[in-house]
Amino acid sequence: MENAEKDLERIEIELLLQGLYAWCGYDYRDYAYPSIRRRVRYRMQAEKTPTVTALLDKLLHDPECLRRLIADFSINVTEMFRDPSFFAAFREKVVPALRTYPSIRIWHAGCATGEEVYSMAIILHEEGLYEKSTIYATDVNANALKIAKAGVFPLSDMKKFTGNYMKSGGKGAFSDYYHVSDNGVKFDSRLTKNVVFAQHNLVTDGSFNEFNVIFCRNVLIYFNKALQEKVHTLFYESLGLFGILGLGDKETIAYTRYADRFEDVHRGEKLYRKVK
Predict the structure, then answer these.
(1) Residue at 78 is within a domain
(2) Is residue 79 part of a domain?
(3) How many structural domains comprise the chain?
(4) Which end of the chain has the least Cβ crowding within 10 Å, N or C?
């Protein structure tokens, strides 16, 4: 009986995802099932709907319910200089090559609320590369992008962010990049002068430029294998020759169809260079 209930729940969730796609174009059908199931069950409890089908009925007729569910599906877990050794490796292994470029285009795909975008802007500023750089910060979640663009974050996060910054090889005082306001901590607007914030859906949208660097960290782990391959194709097609791809610590270019077209810049930190 337990297996039958699980099978029925999966059918209902698949119907919900198909309904979302048909009704408003949001495509979560190839997201990893365990992650989607957790988010659906959370929203069922919050909306007090007894079944997944009842939740589908509500979101099709209640725009606010739909908005809340889409927010649940968005991945917004991030922090500044997350995994400091990754950013230290970027400074050491990638920045010297970027110095040789007349201009630099960087894509933060799935940037969430923008903490890693500000991290990159700080690195480029400290390395004297910001003025010739453009950072494209994209996410499917419009509300997350608003937070990223505003550059206001909780004061309580600054101790962690400062520690990360120092471990990543920061060359100044982290507090020089922000000031405390009534709403929290506001980062200096000079850090976003060369940042373009825009909605982009990795599931349905294509390439929009050629980049020297693409960061997509801790996003692919939420996709199934077919969608991961699709996104790797997007990144490969969007990177110029010798462009850099940065992934999360549980993600890899290995075992994809593009594995032999990249070389390790720093295998441990998941930094790869496109070589063909």
Answers:
(1) no
(2) no
(3) 2
(4) N
